[in-house]
Specification:
It is an enzyme of class 2 (transferase). The protein is α+β, with helices and mostly antiparallel strands. The strands form five sheets. It has a six-stranded antiparallel beta sheet with strand order 3-2-1-6-5-4, sandwiched between helices. A hairpin with a 5-residue loop joins β9 and β10. It is rod-shaped, with a radius of gyration of 58 Å. Adenosine-5'-diphosphate is lined by residues 433, 437-438, 441, 474, 476-479, 483, 487, 492-495, 500-506, 529.
Length: 684
């Protein structure tokens, strides 16, 4: 479910990411195009402004040109000419004055603002204009005179006999150009018209105070270096602008229009904001993606590790299961035959003791085999409610005995963690294994605490539910990280040969897992170790069965001698076991026939009636359960006792049908009891 949800998120991110990137890129290009459009528009307007200005100047020059062909001027009648010019000036209200310059003497012959009189020296502005006109002898636009006069001048040359004789100049009110400029410039933006000297002729800002004065260095550099284009700059008022300009090739006057900053800055700002947002979004999404992937990978790795551990246990489990099975067969033969010997030498005290010693050792072997099988899982666990209080009470004596007097054993059981789901026998064995490990870790004595408490969040790999943490803590030597990592591996031990089997923690782990829980180990070197079994809490209404006696405890009953002879057919492929069973039963007074395979057994069944069939489960060809079915076809109602090693127990029980089961290893008394009970149950 979690993986599923994550892949959905991943999918969503994968779907949105290209859209976000596409929108961001689209917005960026759109805004850039918009900016280019606004710039082109402004540059166009600046060119139009210069055309309008030129138009105005040319019209004024044309009007002035009419005067140049005056007869009075040609004849040198200056006074008459003066009054004639004054009449023309009245018709052109934008002209403040008209002057006449003598190109030969370089003197000003008259100025309409003054009464006609003696010639005066030329002002600097007009002298410069005269110089320029001398070179081309064409009408031209001059420049503006500085305050307080503030007039924009145009000049018309007057020639006679191929020589430049006079120059007529008209001083135009700059307001005329100011009107043109405001008509062209976008309202609210800064704009100016500048003459050939770089002085303001018109200006949208502070026109009155700036007209006739030099423009900023930015403006003058721009017109020095090119005839049109854009330049950044700052106005006298401190406004930062990006300005388009165009210079007329005829008048050399130029128009400067700031690109509307709202139209430029906003798109730029927005494109930055959009790009930044897109980048941020992409980053966040990408980051989330990476984070999720990393977490997924970590989780997968953990899951794989758990799987690997189970597979390892599975493989070793199968192997040990097989070994233990054969081992059980051998032990059955050993124990059985020792039993027979013991019975025969009842009177010889010394021989009997020797037999007892050998039996004792064999039983220990059987215990080891059962440990092997416990973790090999072949011995099916009977999981049910287990009362920990009862379990503790039951093993406390044994525990104290196992760990010895130098270790202080304490049990702490929370009342709400009393009943768990597990197998009581296996759980007992697990606690004993842990206690023994604790003892081995505390050769100089110490404390061993067994505790049980409720836990909610324990392990992410366990299904949700209530759990109990059953932990065994010691104050011993602890484990290194390498030992801790391998501690539950089957056959891993750091103890000398004969002391460690390496199966203790494997069994504990198998119990935890089979109970639907888990196991973890906390350990610090020289501090101690806590092994924690996580077990499911039993439902509140669970009924705890009364504890049954442990499987391993061999019944100490005396063998029961039969009075009435019964015929038993013994089938086992293992010669030693078969012989032991036959011998045992014969000594108990039964009539016994035996064989090592199912086919021969069926032939014997055809020839003779038997009261009981005793068969091994695992045999080549026909197994015990199959033989039982075939035998009961021939002799309906025939009681069958199947002998099996633990390893088969789950499979055996499934295949048994009406047959009963006797687990290996067993001794003569157990065999006798099982046979007698089966025969009795048939009788009534
Ligand atoms: P065994 O006890 O037969 O060696 P176990 O499976 O019980 O096998 O333990 C495996 C190994 O883990 C031990 O040999 C020991 O090194 C280590 N170990 C287990 N329990 C403890 C503990 N309580 N303190 C220190 N080391 C431990
Ligand atoms: Mg151990």
């Amino acid at each position: 479910m979690r993986f599923f949800r994550r892949s959905l998120i991943t999918l969503g991110v994968a779907a949105t990411l290209p859209t976000v990137v596409f929108v961001a890129v689209g917005a960026f290009y759109f805004l850039r195009a918009e900016r280019a459009r606004v710039e082109a528009d402004t540059l166009g307007r600046s060119e139009i402004a210069t055309m309008l200005v030129d138009g105005r100047l040319r019209r004024d020059l044309a009007a002035l040109g009419v005067l140049t062909s005056s007869v009075d001027l040609a004849k040198g009648n200056m006074r008459e000419f003066y009054f004639r010019v004054r009449r023309v000036q009245v018709a052109n209200p934008a002209w403040r004055t008209i002057i006449l310059i003598d190109a030969v003497s370089g003197q000003e012959l008259f100025d309409l603002r003054r009464p006609f009189g003696e010639p005066t020296p030329l002002s600097e502005v007009h002298a410069r204009a005269l110089n320029d006109i001398r070179q081309s002898a064409l009408p031209m636009a001059g420049s503006i005179t500085p305050p307080p006069e503030k007039l924009a001048w145009v000049y018309a040359p007057v020639s006679g006999e191929g020589e430049l004789r006079y120059v007529l100049g008209a001083g135009i009110e700059p307001q005329a150009f100011q009107d043109l400029l405001t008509a062209v410039a976008v309202p609210g933006t800064t704009a100016a018209v500048v003459d050939r000297q770089g002085q303001f002729v018109a200006r949208t800002l502070n026109f009155e105070s700036r007209v006739g004065t030099p423009a900023t260095e930015f403006v003058r550099r721009a017109i020095r270096e090119g005839s049109s284009g854009f330049y950044p700059g700052t106005t006298y008022e401190g406004l930062k602008n990006y300005t388009a300009f165009h210079t007329s090739s005829w008048s050399q006057w130029s128009a400067h229009l700031a690109v509307a900053s709202a139209a430029i800055d906003a798109p730029t700002t927005w494109s930055f904001v959009a790009a930044a947002l897109a980048a941020l979004g992409t980053l966040v999404l990408g980051g989330t993606l990476v984070l999720l992937m990393v977490r997924d990978m970590a989780e997968r790795r953990r899951a794989e590790e758990t799987l690997r551990q189970s597979q390892k246990m599975e493989a070793v489990g199968q192997l040990t299961g097989g070994i233990a099975h054969d081992f059980n067969n051998l032990l059955t033969a050993v124990i059985g035959n020792l039993d027979l010997i013991r019975n025969r030498v009842k009177d010889n005290e010394r021989l009997r003791r020797l037999a007892d010693n050998a039996l004792e050792a064999s039983r220990r072997g059987a215990k080891l085999a059962s440990q092997l099988l416990a973790f090999s899982r072949s011995q099916r666990m009977a999981v049910g409610p287990v009362n920990l209080q009862q379990l503790f009470n039951g093993i406390s004596g044994l525990l104290a005995q196992s760990v010895g007097p130098s270790i202080d054993v304490r049990m702490e059981l929370d009342p709400d963690a009393r009943v768990v789901m597990s197998d009581s026998n296996q759980l007992e064995l697990a606690l004993l294994n842990l206690a023994v490990n604790g003892r081995d870790a505390m050769p100089g004595g110490g404390k061993l605490i067994i505790s049980a408490r409720r836990a909610n969040v324990v392990d992410r790999h366990l299904p949700k539910g209530d759990y109990v943490q059953l932990s065994v803590t010691d104050t011993g030597v602890g484990m290194t990280e390498e030992v801790r990592a391998r501690a539950i591996d089957p056959f891993f031990t750091t103890k000398p040969v004969g002391q460690g089997t390496g199966l203790g923690l494997s069994q504990v782990y198998a119990v935890a897992r089979e109970s639907g829980g888990s196991l973890y180990i906390d350990s610090e070197i020289h501090q101690g170790t806590t092994v924690c079994l996580v077990l499911p809490l039993a439902p509140a209404d669970a009924v705890v069965p009364v504890a049954a006696p442990a499987v391993l405890e061999a019944a100490e009953a005396e063998p029961e001698l039969v009075t009435k002879s019964a015929a038993v057919l013994v089938v086992d492929d293992d010669k030693l076991v078969r012989r032991f069973m036959s011998e045992s039963l014969r000594s108990l007074g039964y009539e016994v026939r035996d064989t090592d395979n199912g086919v021969d057994a069926l032939i014997l069944l055809d020839a003779q009636r038997f009261d009981l069939l005793l068969a091994d489960f695992a045999m080549p060809g026909m197994n015990g359960a199959e033989l039982a079915k075939a035998a009961q076809m021939k002799q309906p109602g025939l009681p069958v006792l199947i002998v099996s090693g633990y390893a088969d127990s789950a499979a055996v029980e499934a295949a048994l049908g009406t047959a009963r089961q006797l687990r290996k290893p067993f001794d003569m008394a157990e065999l006798g009891a099982a046979v007698a009970e089966l025969l009795r149950s048939r009788e009534p």
